[in-house]
Amino acid sequence: MKISKNDFFFYSCWLLCLFAVVGCTSKPQKQVVICSKDFTEQAILAEILAQHIEAKTDIKVKQEQNLGGSLCHQSLTTGKIDLYVEYTGTAYANILKQKQISDPKKVLDYLKQEYPKQFKAEWTQPLGFNNSFAIIVRGDQAKTLNLQTLSQLGKASPNLRAAFGPEFNEREDGLAGLAKTYGIKFREQPKELLLGLLYEALQQKQVDVIAGNTTDGVIQSLGLVVLKDDKNYFPPYEAVPVVRSQILEKYPELRQVLAELGGKISEEDMRKLNYQVDGQQQEARQVAREFLQQKLGGSQPAPSAK
Prior knowledge:
alpha/beta; D-Maltodextrin-Binding Protein, domain 2; 2 domains; 5-stranded mixed beta sheet; 10 strands
């Protein structure tokens, strides 16, 4: 059938009007933006949050990955991102400029009080682990010397050698305060090594004591022991999702979904997850998916939006 120019013009206008109506009536897609700092643990945690949100809601998740330093906090306050996992001690001392204290409840309560006022953001439930400094020894050595606590290390320290990273040597909550609190005095001046070399030096018995982080993946894989901070010297660094207040008002279902992750990740869990990525070269996305299936059950699809 031959179509006249007038008919063609009519049908073209009709289609354009139809597309315009569809475009006006379709709902905008729900979306949140999650930030992660520039280390493995943060990439895994961002994936856990993103996959859980997408599995339990119709909200799509975009990720801003590997932001260094305080960029996640800055991006949150300017509205460029909507949520990320922060550590209580970092926010308390570095962001709010408070003198470090060792009581985790007081720290978290203060953050919950100040963040809505200063940054229009809220701290949700802690994920369940604390990523603080860790004083670490070899497993066989801990058994031989009966080392389980930092108080016991203080008594044994004159016969031991140590190595620490530059940050631990310089920080207010680092070596100087630790030595004073526990009466630690090593056999010789502690070596200063880059963080990547500390575990190697300990494993090869070049030193006996190092400072790492409580969730480092290699702790478990190398059979090392984290000495208990029995006098609570180190400030708390609990991992907690922080969310813009505006986004919680916009998507109130987020509050319950994030609460479902509260207390679900132990220090041992986080060590295993970090090791799967760093030590076994698995993808953070796959590691997060398997963890969610194990802990919460059900299907946990990977985020569709990046």
